[in-house]
Design goal:
- It is a single chain.
- The protein is of the alpha+beta class.
- It has 5 helices and 5 strands; from the N terminus they run ααααβββββα.
- β3 and β4 form a beta hairpin.
Length: about 150
Amino acid sequence: MAFPSIDPGGAALAALRRAGLRVTGPRRAVLAWLAGHPHSTVDSIGAGVRPYLGSVSTQGLYDVLAVCTKAGLLRKIELPGHPARFERRAGDNHHHLVCRRCGRTEDVDCLSGARPCLTPGDTHGFRLEEAEVVFWGRCPGCAENHHEEGP
């Protein structure tokens, strides 16, 4: 199955092969689409890939996302009060900025670089591997309109 307009150069195809995963149309389409649409929900991923696949069930999308997340090709972002979001940027040390009003989500690199980039005062014996930080606020568009809409 060819995806010339969604997977130029076959980057998603190559990523699936490197991960040792079977190459399927839905997996390739989801990875390719997420490359240009980070922080997407299952609903937006479905709307984005269905024009290329014809049809794919929501359960099928969840299956693709689970397999690709487990293989390290995707990162699942679970924020309180928001649906899960997925991105291709996985395995590095970055955090997220989230708008409280509209949910816009942006990547922000960790300043110290090494994992974990933050260390608690007491690890309680845990061997730390990663720190996940979410910065909450208002994006420029929502901050600009704040005076009109209230808190």
